[in-house]
Amino acid sequence: EVSVLGGSMLALGVSDAARLPRAPRALVQAIHARGGAAFVGHIERSALVDPERFAAAAPDGIEIANLHARAAEVPTRLALGHLLLPARLALRPLLGAPRANLERWSKLPGARSIVGGVDAHAKFRALGPLGGTLDRYRDTFRLLTTHVLVRERSESAILEALRVGRSYVAFEGISPVDRFEVSRQGSAVWVRAPREARLALVCDGEVASEAVGLEVELRSVQDTSRCHVEAWLGDRLWIATSRLG
Length: 245
Known about the structure:
It is built from eight helices and twelve strands. The protein is an alpha+beta fold and 245 residues long. The longest helix is centred in the N-terminal third of the chain and has 10 residues, at 24-33.
């Protein structure tokens, strides 16, 4: 993770960050040259959410949700939950839908692929030195996951899938996700979820089609290349896919 323009750039697949440049476009090129994938992190504070700056940098995608950033928004709820509840329930305030980030994403040109950032440091102490850490790895890594569709089980295949947008982000602290299927046929998008949910086709930040079910067909009157699919359980965002491309 490299600090840049108020936020960060995630150099996924790059094991050595030495001598990486800080200029956004040069940084993305250097990450690619080392075989990695470049994702803008912490978009809630990054200057790269400016569409022109984002287009000039040309990263592979964005971090749509970051649990560490969310923790800073709800410290009191986390502290109370930590004192009174088991970790599975105490950490649920971290699972709020990243509505502002979804809105930012809708305005970014070429931002096809998304990842979710647990960003656990095992050092977030809502009660200072009086309490244990709230972001223990064993608990937080179960909350938010990034799934990829790969050709084989290898690092290079995972990075390829991330770069081209064969990925989706799941808030598994709400409900586990073993498989989420999306396919396109013209203006029709077929979706199959692990359990019944409100499934929506979102295009340029607006819901184009939605239905409740386990397996549904969603349709749009526009080009679905700027669309992605969301699954909601009640008022909670459960799954969000990369743009369909």
